[in-house]
Design goal:
One of its GO terms (molecular function) is single-stranded telomeric DNA binding. 21% of the residues lie in helices and 32% in strands. The protein is an alpha+beta fold and 237 residues long. The protein has two domains: 9-74, no CATH class; 85-193 and 200-235, Nucleic acid-binding proteins (OB fold (Dihydrolipoamide Acetyltransferase, E2P)), CATH 2.40.50. The radius of gyration is 21 Å and the shape is elongated. The two termini are 34 Å apart.
Length: 237
Amino acid sequence: MPIIGTVLRIFSDMPIKEVSHMQNRVYWARFCNITCKEEFGIWKGILLASSKVRLLSHEDGSVVDRRKMYAIRKANQVLCQPMASFPSNVTVLSDVEYEEEWHSTLMQSLTHKEVTHKLKTLARVVGAYPCQASGLRLLSTGNIHLRLTLEDPTARIHAYVHKNYLVQFFGGFLTEEAITKKMNKLLGIPEPEDSEEGAPLTRNPPWIWCCLTSFYMDKNNPWDSRKYRIFATEMRD
């Protein structure tokens, strides 16, 4: 099951009058007897034939409590982050130079009204390309881009580190050994000496702050050709 604080998108194959009613205004609602499943690392909720949706008033006790919790979290830059971003293993690996923008979730960026914008976000790296030894050797030459798959509790995107920015991103060192070590750290791959002999290796990517800028490849089709690039972010030991 998703942990508390996960942003859960709920899907239904059947019409539900309360849901269609909510499209016209913003409502508080209680969802009963729904199921959840994980797809590609992202949780989604599914309404069943037996599911119930109950609209709540602003005076409902549970609504009042959650509005108070929201006000407290909204006033604090750290607590404003999705709760699912704060497991016990939170590690800040990056130095972020870009401090002008308020932080955003990935979903807030994907639904931003402007196709090009900048943001600072807290996410983890769940995939990378290249990631094999031969690809990492090419990275050390500075001749190819690095593609990272970023994930937070709301969405998952690809973000690129431009080949001209690799030296800064990896903290000024572009040797094969340094890149391999830092990529393993980004992906949450334990060092051999930290693993028990015979035990399967499990990844646990740390949460990192990073800055993203969106751009498009085709001016005639900006939304469908939008991509993300990492900037003003440097890994540190």
